[in-house]
Specification:
78% of the residues lie in helices and 0% in strands. The protein is mainly α. Helix 5 packs across helix 6. The protein is elongated.
Amino acid sequence: MTSVWHFLTTSANWWGNNGILARTSAHLRLSVLSVLVAASIAVPLGVWTAHWKRFTSVAVAFVNIGRAIPSFALLALVFPISLRFGFGLGFWPTTVAMVALGLPPIFISTFTGIREVDPASRDAARGMGMSTLGSIRQVELPLALPLIFTGLRIAAMQVIATATLGALVAFNGLGSFIEEGRASFNAEKYLGGAVIVTVLALVVESLVRRGQQLLTPWVNKYR
């Protein structure tokens, strides 16, 4: 732990393009973008399949790409495609792989949340003259929101931790400290990078949890 403390308290390690601040910022930007893109796909897909069950197997197969293929293998598949179409190294191949990783937990939580809505709530919405879309927007999604946030928290932590693999395809995030430390047998840099990733994941998880509390105050009120 002494070596980690030395790494974190050495001011030279914090500045420049390869410093802690720059790499943490890049890692966070990629992670946030990946989770947002995954959510924009998985939430509508989860709602849709919860209502129209005939497409459930197709949707589940699609979102489970992130589970069926290891993240490292997915990076290896995306990497040459990214080069072929001019997206380059680093950021975009890693983002695609992380989006695939974030899809399953968000989809499953959304699907489960919508399916578990009390049928009486749906009947009441229809009795008030709401369309299916209106019922989804005003009744079902608010009721499913706590579960959806659970999926978001899981996805965020998985993406932040796994995005360290991006160092293998030249993404200059926090994984670069781990990879550089491994390659040079520098335990200080290796462990320092791992500690920063862990702290970042915990901070983001706490922020998402706080966002859930603010957006779903009724959940805490009746616990």
